[in-house]
C-alpha cells in the first residue's frame, strides 16, 4: 500500500482513450495541467479498435 507521500494529484482525469479522450489529451499537453487518461483497453483507440481494422492513429 502506498503512503500519502506517493500519491499524485492530477488537475484532470480523462475517462476513455478513444477519439475524444485523445483529442482532449492533445490539447491538455499544451498546458501546464497535470492529466491522466484512463481506458479499459490495452492500447489507445477506443471504438476504432473494434470497427476499422485498417484505421491507425498516427
Derived structural class? alpha+beta
Shape: elongated
Overall pLDDT metric: 82
Question: What is the beta-strand fraction?
Answer: 5-15%
- How far do the termini sit from each other? 37 Å
Cross-sheet strand order for the largest sheet: 1-2
Binned, the helix content reads 10-25%
Number of helices: 2
* Radius of gyration over all CA atoms, rounded: 14 Å
- In this structure, how is the largest beta sheet organized? 2 strands, parallel
Run of helices and strands: EHEH
Low-confidence stretches: none
* Secondary structure: number of strands: 2
Short description:
By secondary structure, this protein is α+β, with helices and mostly antiparallel strands.
Features of this protein?
single chain, 58 residues, alpha+beta, two-stranded parallel ribbon, 24% helix, 14% strand
Topology:
Blueprint: E1 12-15, H1 19-28, E2 35-38, H2 48-51
Parallel strand pairs: 1-2
Structure description:
The radius of gyration is 14 Å and the shape is elongated. The chain has helices at 19-28, 48-51; strands at 12-15, 35-38. A two-stranded parallel sheet has the order 1-2. It is α+β, with helices and mostly antiparallel strands and 58 residues long. The chain has a domain at 4-40.
Amino acid at each position: 500500500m502506498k503512503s500519502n507521500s506517493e500519491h499524485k494529484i492530477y488537475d484532470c482525469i480523462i475517462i476513455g482513450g478513444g477519439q475524444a479522450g485523445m483529442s482532449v489529451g492533445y490539447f491538455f499537453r499544451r498546458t501546464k495541467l497535470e492529466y491522466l487518461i484512463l481506458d479499459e483497453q490495452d492500447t489507445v483507440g477506443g471504438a476504432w479498435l473494434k470497427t476499422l481494422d485498417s484505421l491507425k492513429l498516427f
